[in-house]
Amino acid sequence: METPTIERAPLSPSAKGRYVRNAIMRIRDTLGLFTALHRDYGDIVRYNILFLEFCIIFDPDLIREVLYEKRSSFEKGFIYKRNTVLHGPTLVTGDGEDHLRRRRIIQPFFHRKALDKYAAIMAERAIAKREEWHRGQIIDADREMRHLTLSISLEVFFEDKTRIDNEMAKNLIDLLILDFQLALLPGRQFIKRVLPRYRRLMRLKEPMDDIIRASIRAARANAGERTDLVAFLVHATDESTAAPAFDEFEVLDEVIEMLMASHETTGCTLAWAFYFLSRNPSVRERMEQEIDAVLGRQTPTLADYDRLVYTRAVLDETLRLASPSYYIGRRAIEDCTIGGYFIPAGANVQLCCYASHRNERYFPHPHQFRPERWLEPQPERPRYAYMPFGAGSRGCVGEAFALMSGVYALASIAQRYRLEVVSDQPPALKTMAGYFFKNGLPVEVCERQG
To answer: Is the CB of residue 368 less than 8 Å from the CB of residue 48?
Structure first.
């Protein structure tokens, strides 16, 4: 029996040729494009953007094939390869043995036991942010949560109290998103050289680079006890040679990447959590009851983390419905088949978990915000039906860090305040690089009674 090829049904034949429409949608409404393709053509769909051809996969069993059973046939997506903001491969963008080497070296920093000592920092930073607000104030929860998670990451990653601030972080995020968008275009290298906004953002990145490099040099010269990420990477050694694992530019790139990933996605997730809590008062009341019983008015401690089970469930349910990383990209490095369909070498493959996170087969009442589902016996479902942190050998090394800081932030803020969404309209989204708020999330700070 002939193996179906990527040019044949049920992969979308009619999507081919709609180059301009797809390109515009990919930039303006990526999730809208993905949703329409899934609705019209099923679980594995071919579409084009300009000169690029893509295959997008929605089914968790097919995603498992790509990420696990046939992972050696794929590398990181092409957009990461076209990144010109960083100096070279990193844990996120590297492949093969280089990726595995970086992961082996870096992963211990984010192990649960290693993170225990940062619990106090996470709680203290959340309380400090909470105390900046006052009753009746209108704040942008999206911005405030990003500021909070950045402050946590800065204190954990830099022992020398680096001078990186919120504006620097915002500029870098804007640069990375613009670089992501330009990767889809022909002539991107020329465009980057002449585009004023890109050149300006690259210049604005230089002070952050200088600050991090100064921290790297200080860590290299300091033989004392330092437990921050910069020192960890500076003093890491290659197990086969005992030589330093990373040079200065590699440490710089890894730190920048982890700093942006750790605060951007966790901050956005927390803002979404407060959105869902505002829209679901009974859920919020149950979470508050748990927080009152476990913490009272006390600062959360390490011992409290595992007792805040419903608060953690709120976070898990938020990640189901509003995972910032709702799709990931891969590129086939050799001919292979996925679900019986031929994928040629060079094909760009996108793995979208948005649909499975809302699939009634895996999550009963999928559009309801029901944190209690995570405390009940779970229905049988494919391993890759829920993957807010990715999965397989490339799953996020900072998953435990993100969950711990998220639980402490929710608990610390909810001890005193409720954040009430001020608009009845669903928030506008920007979905090209992730599931993010387009115009922030205005909320009113309301003091809890009693």
So the answer is: no
Residue 435 located in a structural domain: no
Kindly report the CATH number assigned to the domain that includes residue 331.
3.30.43.20
Q: Alpha-carbon Rg of the chain, whole angstroms? A: 22
Q: What contacts 220, CB < 8 A, 6 or more positions away? A: 234, 235
Q: Count CB atoms within 10 A of the CB of residue 200.
A: 13
H/E run at residue 122: helix 119-130
Low-confidence ranges of the chain (pLDDT < 70): 1-27, 160-161, 223-224, 450
User: Which has the closest alpha carbon to 230: 164, 319, 137?
Assistant: 164
Among candidate residues 302, 255, 276, 253, the one with its CA nearest the CA of residue 367 = 276
CA distance 335 to 345: 5
Quick one: which of 159, 79, 146, 88 has its CA closest to 327? 79
Instruction: Please give the Cα distance from 342 to 3 (Å, whole number).
Output: 6
Rounded CA separation 104/244 (Å) = 14
Read off the tokens for 438.
Answer: 């387009």
Residue 13 lies in a domain: yes
